[in-house]
Amino acid sequence: MSIKIGIVGGTGYTGVELLRLLAAHPHAELQVITSRSEAEIPVAQLFPNLRGHVDLCFTEPDVKRLSDCDLVFFATPNGTAMRLVPELLDAGVKVIDLAADFRLKDAQVWEQWYGMPHACPDLLAEAVYGLPEIHRADIAKARLVANPGCYPTAVQLGFLPLIEAGWVDTDRLIADVKSGASGAGRAAAVGTLFGEISENFKAYKADGHRHLPEIKQGLSAIQQTPVGLTFVPHLLPMIRGIHATLYAPLKHNVSPSALHTQFEQYYKNEPFVDVLPTGSHPETRTVRGTNGCRMAVSIPQAGDTVVVLSVIDNLVKGAAGQAVQNMNILFNLPESEGLKHIALLP
Amino acid sequence: MSIKIGIVGGTGYTGVELLRLLAAHPHAELQVITSRSEAEIPVAQLFPNLRGHVDLCFTEPDVKRLSDCDLVFFATPNGTAMRLVPELLDAGVKVIDLAADFRLKDAQVWEQWYGMPHACPDLLAEAVYGLPEIHRADIAKARLVANPGCYPTAVQLGFLPLIEAGWVDTDRLIADVKSGASGAGRAAAVGTLFGEISENFKAYKADGHRHLPEIKQGLSAIQQTPVGLTFVPHLLPMIRGIHATLYAPLKHNVSPSALHTQFEQYYKNEPFVDVLPTGSHPETRTVRGTNGCRMAVSIPQAGDTVVVLSVIDNLVKGAAGQAVQNMNILFNLPESEGLKHIALLP
Amino acid sequence: MSIKIGIVGGTGYTGVELLRLLAAHPHAELQVITSRSEAEIPVAQLFPNLRGHVDLCFTEPDVKRLSDCDLVFFATPNGTAMRLVPELLDAGVKVIDLAADFRLKDAQVWEQWYGMPHACPDLLAEAVYGLPEIHRADIAKARLVANPGCYPTAVQLGFLPLIEAGWVDTDRLIADVKSGASGAGRAAAVGTLFGEISENFKAYKADGHRHLPEIKQGLSAIQQTPVGLTFVPHLLPMIRGIHATLYAPLKHNVSPSALHTQFEQYYKNEPFVDVLPTGSHPETRTVRGTNGCRMAVSIPQAGDTVVVLSVIDNLVKGAAGQAVQNMNILFNLPESEGLKHIALLP
Amino acid sequence: MSIKIGIVGGTGYTGVELLRLLAAHPHAELQVITSRSEAEIPVAQLFPNLRGHVDLCFTEPDVKRLSDCDLVFFATPNGTAMRLVPELLDAGVKVIDLAADFRLKDAQVWEQWYGMPHACPDLLAEAVYGLPEIHRADIAKARLVANPGCYPTAVQLGFLPLIEAGWVDTDRLIADVKSGASGAGRAAAVGTLFGEISENFKAYKADGHRHLPEIKQGLSAIQQTPVGLTFVPHLLPMIRGIHATLYAPLKHNVSPSALHTQFEQYYKNEPFVDVLPTGSHPETRTVRGTNGCRMAVSIPQAGDTVVVLSVIDNLVKGAAGQAVQNMNILFNLPESEGLKHIALLP
Q1: Interface of D with C in 276-335 (CB under 8 A)
Q2: What single string gives the DSSP state of each residue in D206-273?
Q3: Can you list the domains of chain B with their CATH numbers?
Q4: What is the ipTM for the molecules in this complex?
Q5: Residue pLDDT, tens place only, A178-207
């Protein structure tokens, strides 16, 4: 089986990571990759790690050529996919959007956080939120998959077993999250220069980050009532990796072993979620370059607060890897196909 | 005025930082620095940044020579100072211990967390906890100062104005703290190799870190009842800097401007604490190499949780700089003497 | 086909990298991995990136169990393999030593640089130096392969086409080489702490590094007369990667295009050596985690000096990857089997 | 004594470093700092490390206000200073240009390397090249000082004692130089993003970097005949620091001790050049944040090549610090005034 694939965008970090994964995927046949700014440049010239693996050149965006594909990935800035997706869907092409255009169900909320009108709000209901651990069945039948954000993936996977268990006060959830600098993308910007990021650490957007409504939407849907969440993102002096440190107040006494069992049971059939033994602290590097999420849970000092530590690679499980996982589901392939990498350590 | 100074230890990162500060201090006269392992080696050979600034050699520990000093700093591992301090105090020498030997008031709690019997528990009551922002007056009259830990400095300074105001539920405080790798010291260890720390991030000791009882002791003393604190430390892939992200549940409605005013008022006369304008996010690099603490406060999404962001340099305000600040107080010098550095940026 | 494999050592960075590669190799069947210090510990506990990929525990070294293997890799400190290799060879096991025990042909030179007597100098003649680009045919027939050092791989591959062409004065070769810190291994040591390596750069062993005689032996053998080489290694504040900047004085005029053609021709059939277009500068990250060597050549300012830029991943083409390449040759497998990774970028 | 100072530019890394140094200089009185893009923004808002130390706001460039200064520093991109300098000199203001506008004596060479016509070629002869170790006397009498480039400072200081001694073949000098990323400035650019620089290493502009003619001009002037130099710059994954590794072929036998003595004698009265003991390897961090240059010399393996290792902080001795040193000379102050910092280590 061979899936004809198009990529719109693809000059950013999410794009090159998608290319790395697809170039080695046994059923992916890369047909076209578009970029206005890099048109006619060989992909492997921009990203020399792909020399010998990807022969394509970037081309001007062209809906006709994209319509010949079975699947189109959008690795574009927010607000781009929504302008092209309706036409592609009409042409029978499946779409996975790695940006945020179809992640929120409420167009008004989307417009408030993303600061522009939505071009096709009617598709929001149809789009399936591509977190396979929750929506696997719906993804399999979808035409349009909204690939989750990086923080929302790490945070939701960490909170889900707790919410499902009903043990914690979901009015006062706290997510203290830290991301590598690649999460900010490959655009030229002073704030992400080496001289600004290295040997430095800071929080940002403590008052409100776009991933907050996405996480609240996901957790509230599971619980079927709204959750209260304080979400503070921080910028790490490293390239890849997200570490979510999650705090939830216990409503009543829970033993550490019951807590651990709940997480293990919840994820026991998941190929990409690994619950570590009690007392562990997951390291971001143990999932670097892989589609895995590793987590550990504890109740420090036998107190009344659960702590969940959850790590992913923001460019893989937080972006391109999850997109490929969604592709596998869409095309009825084994979910781990092309995603069996072992993390580089060190 | 010239203070004759001895340093015990001084081959670690705290030691070299203390040397950097004292070498440029107008009233410090370095007399002796001891190290069993490096005896007879010039200090500037071990630490070439001190070439031309420090002429001393390390010498074998010798209580007699130390007794000729006005002040002795201990930059030793935990458990060393307590064996020598009584003799030095008897000789009329003032002592500042940069390790943990005299930080906790309760010898039993100390022994539980540090895993050894305390050699002079009777001195615990006399020792003054050297956080000048709280104990300035007592430090001025002390013989023995227990220099605070790095995390406890950043965390206590961040929570103090909140506790003083009485606005938050102190049963559910959360301190999510992140430290540069120099906090782990200069001892040979696999866990702090470059290959282990770089391009990696993790929590550690989530179940209980030695700085937890120190912070709880300090905050509880201010509040005069015990506080409840969840404290999760993390290891940053950078050398210097601590960032404490603090969460406290509001007991009732407080406006962001009232919150900000409370912090500004609380610290308005402090030479080393800088409350940033509303909406700021302090960066660790803005205090690198300096004795400053910078902080910002907010109530994200107008919710019911206060977030305090507090940064220090773990080796300066979190160790050697605070020790020099305490020296200035002990010897009635201007508190900023020798501590006026501007942070390197970038 | 399934090759039964034993690993002696394997708790260092070379070891974990070998495990990563072998765990995904279709013909490698890992039977035993020994470590005195970690005996009975699961491999995946020490290296959590291997969770789900390697089920073995470390065991005490045991020649009998190793003798049941088809192939044994030594990922041990220098001086260990030479004590066990004779017995294993007698038992009909093939051996690849990733340390230096069998790299030099002259036992006296070896003893001078490695500071100990050689345990089996008679095997030095038989051992094949495992640089496949030169010794492929001999490797295929070998019992014992001496896997090259990291610097020697990058430097020899860069100089070979020049020496072969006879265009440069080989009395005055210069190799200015820079290595990531993982090259220093995973042993606890002050010099490789994060606090010592990060935000710092220095040369080391400018007067003489153990890889100097290894490089000179290799280049002199090709040229059939001794070469003169100045070799200055430096330590980079990064984990993986070697960059060799090589300088060779031209004996007579050579055009840039002739130079480039010579390199392209020399390596045109090599699966792992990639000569970049004129004007390129290879980046270490483009080979990170892969067995590739990328290089570029130029004659700056149309002068009389050739500059070769050659990069590898010190843990892969400079160690574990080249060892697997040698394994493939030894067992008559396609040379790229299990070595088709694409580098992570960024 | 108080020097009224203006800064043109000052929003880059060189600018903030100049501000850090001048803010603590006892005789510098900062009057005006101009920036078109940041006009009316407080300097300490852009660079929070300066909070409490610099109260000025950026203002629109205004020759009249600058003319009231005693001294104007240009911390602008190449090509800016040359448009304003003539007017300022006419107004009796002294000028130190930290950019390249007045570094080369030959306008044609300048135009070839900098790709634009020179606005005031007649001033090139008058401008004094501000390397105090060579031109101290001329600087003292100058109106216009061309502050040297970062690489040229490290490279020239390293080669000077050799050229002066006449021991080496200056037709075949090699400078393999490595710079921290701050050398590329604070402009938004993909190439200097954290994601591009971190965990990566590469050479750049191996075919010809603008500092090549500057170095050749300086060395040739000392020797009074042209030198031949191969100069290959590399980009280090760190913020600050230059390490020059210099190679020179000996014309005849020289002993290591004679070599070392020549360097020690040459620099024995220099406040900022420190020749390390034989066998040392200078580390960039030992000069971080300081105006020092540390160097070591050797003749590896008793061969025929001298190796000089020379380190500076590219933003201090390679830019802002040397500019302040030149200011001290211009105004007859002690040369180390305001430049006595001790490097942060670690």
Answers
A1: 279, 281-285, 288, 298, 300-301, 303-305, 307, 309, 311
A2: TT--THHHHHHHHHHHHHTS---EEEEEEEESSSS-EEEEEEEEBSS---HHHHHHHHHHHTTT-SSE
A3: 3-126 (3.40.50.720), 151-314 (3.30.360.10)
A4: 0.97
A5: 999 999 999 999 999 999 999 999 999 999
